[in-house]
Amino acid sequence: MDETRNFIHDAIEDDLAPGGRFEGRTVHTRFPPEPNGYLHIGHAKAICINFTTAEKYGGLCNLRFDDTNPTKEDVEYVDAIEQDIRWLGFDWGDRLFFGSDYAQFIYDTAEAFIRKGLAYVDDLSADEMRAMRGTLTEPGKDSPYRNRGVAENLDLFRRMKAGEFEAGAKVLRARIDMASGNLNLRDPAMYRIKKESHHRTGDEWCIYPMYDFAHPLQDAVEGITHSLCSLEYEDHRPLYDWVVAHADLADKPRQIEFARLNLTNTVMSKRKLLELVTRGLVDGWDDPRMPTLRGLRRRGYTPASIRTFCDRIGVSKVYSTVDSAFLEHCLREDLNANARRVMGVLRPVRLVVENYPEGRVETFEAENNPERPEDGTRTVPFARELWIEADDFAEEPPKGYFRMFPGNEVRLKHAYVVRCTGCVKDADGRVVEVRCTYDPATRGGDTPDGRKVKGTIHWVSAAHAVDAEVRLYDSLFSVPDPDATEDRDYKELLNPDSLEVLTGCKVEPSLADAVAPASYQFLRIGYFCVDNRPAAPGRLVFNRSVALKDSFKGGKG
RNA sequence: UGGGAUGUAGCCAAGCGGCAAGGCACGGGACUUUGACUCCCGCAUCCGCAGGUUCGAAUCCUGCCGUCCCAGCCA
């Protein structure tokens, strides 16, 4: 983590250098979510950047809920957000803050701005204000209330606070420059009237500060040195600096913007994610196909894999969309190293070992993880009748196929080498049973005579197998960039095959008591986790986190 | 002549005047009791384009082109 570099680190090191803006200071960042929705992988990037940047320089990172708009925010999200950040493994110590806690301070600062002639109360309606703001290419016009005296402004502002005016009747505006090329500087609103209960301050206030006024003050009060945010705030930086410059505070935090994360085959906007949930297009915020942290968690993503991902995608100011395959790669890397291997048959077909005595059962020791010998072994039972993957048998093998087909030898992982003798089909010609004979000399799967057996397949003893439901997930959208397709509603681009539910799957008995959040590698298939929503007693549900890579390019098996 | 950013491989991304890192994806090979993992090899004579400065430019200068963001009393 120390060797990663980006332009933010460069900027911080300049600031810390002798003569720099923050020479001798402790680097202090913050993650400032608005409690109006669940966190997603895009937030994870911001969380990682803020926490790891502070850590890199021996600094601190605060968690601050940016709750300045009572109409959109809810306490229910606060807990969820805290949980998700903790789950990722970050710790804000005792530095949990709420923007609303600074309400009085921000209000006092607003009065100070009024006294300095930097703000005025405007009676214009929202529509009138918009009409007078000008356009991208034309300057705006001064409001007729722009030159009210300090005393009148102060009086009006206090009466706004006292609740004398209805919502929308008046706003406090910064007095900057109605002709600025930067629209954010055309006398932006600083305070608006909202007669609504706030999730923390209740009915104490009926005026609430706007982000542009509140955020820089919150940063400054907390002693934030580097306020890291996304690119769309670049245009707001002059305003941020303006507020900070005129506020009566020693600290002058520096805002630095970076590009937010986009991922292929998914959407990241809160609005769209919310719509997917409310329309029932997914199974809630924690649907394993959702890019929310809760969705990823339920999918089987580990905190480590997400942090590695965020670390490796880098930080820059270029609008970018990262290939989801890279996120999957990071998950496989983590799970390959840490997930125990088991055998599970998703689409079972019966295999009968003709020369194996009926009723006989023997057991084999199977390694739990070849990448971690210290994880030891487990016992798997073997008998005459087994389940194997339907895909692992082909009456007429495609080119390059080296699994089970008549006459071919294949190894049953950990057990014996068997030779396929044929199959039994039903009236419709469907294979219902595969037949084979085993070579007793190959116990454990070795070939004492040194002969090569190319194929190795997984299996489960029919008599000992445990039934399970397996959910196969794929990408939520069938196109790389659902947001970019303007001629079609993004909901039409949902991948119809993003979920396939398989019942009657057969897994080895060691999985009988598996509980979330355990992850396993089902040999030769992929990584699966126990679904973290409570299943009916005795029922096992596995979610596929990500499939194993498969370099077999032959025809369908 | 609105303002602010940004263009390095299919996708991320280093690079900061000395002769194009790395990862993902992809292709080939080795190994293999997972067609996984691992390991090799390949993958930008070129850095949006055009000029210029320089012994030397992706890095500096000029011009052009493309893309993104901004007209909430949202954040």
Description:
Strands 10-23-24-25-21-22-11 form a seven-stranded mixed sheet, with helices on one face. Strands 19-16-17-18-12-15-20 form a seven-stranded mixed sheet, with no helix packed on it. It is an alpha/beta fold. It folds into three domains: 7-260, Rossmann fold (3-Layer(aba) Sandwich), CATH 3.40.50.620; 270-340 and 467-547, Ribosomal Protein L25, Chain P, CATH 2.40.240; 344-458, Beta Barrel (Ribosomal Protein L25, Chain P). It starts with 6 loop residues before the first helix and ends in a 10-residue tail after the last strand. 24% of the residues lie in helices and 23% in strands. The chain binds one RNA strand of 75 nucleotides through helix 5, strand 6, helix 7, helix 12 and strand 19.
Topology at a glance:
Blueprint: H1 7-16, E1 28-31, H2 41-56, E2 60-65, H3 75-88, E3 96-98, H4 103-115, E4 119-122, H5 126-132, H6 150-162, E5 171-174, E6 189-193, E7 207-209, H7 211-221, E8 226-230, H8 237-246, E9 254-258, H9 270-278, H10 293-299, H11 303-313, H12 324-338, E10 340-342, E11 344-345, E12 348-353, E13 362-367, E14 377-382, E15 385-389, E16 409-412, E17 417-425, E18 431-439, E19 455-457, E20 459-461, E21 466-473, E22 499-507, E23 519-522, E24 526-530, E25 541-547
Parallel strand pairs: 1-2, 2-3, 8-9, 10-23, 12-18, 16-19, 21-25
Antiparallel strand pairs: 4-5, 5-6, 6-7, 11-22, 12-15, 13-14, 15-20, 16-17, 17-18, 21-22, 23-24, 24-25
The protein binds one RNA strand of 75 nucleotides through helix 5, strand 6, helix 7, helix 12 and strand 19.
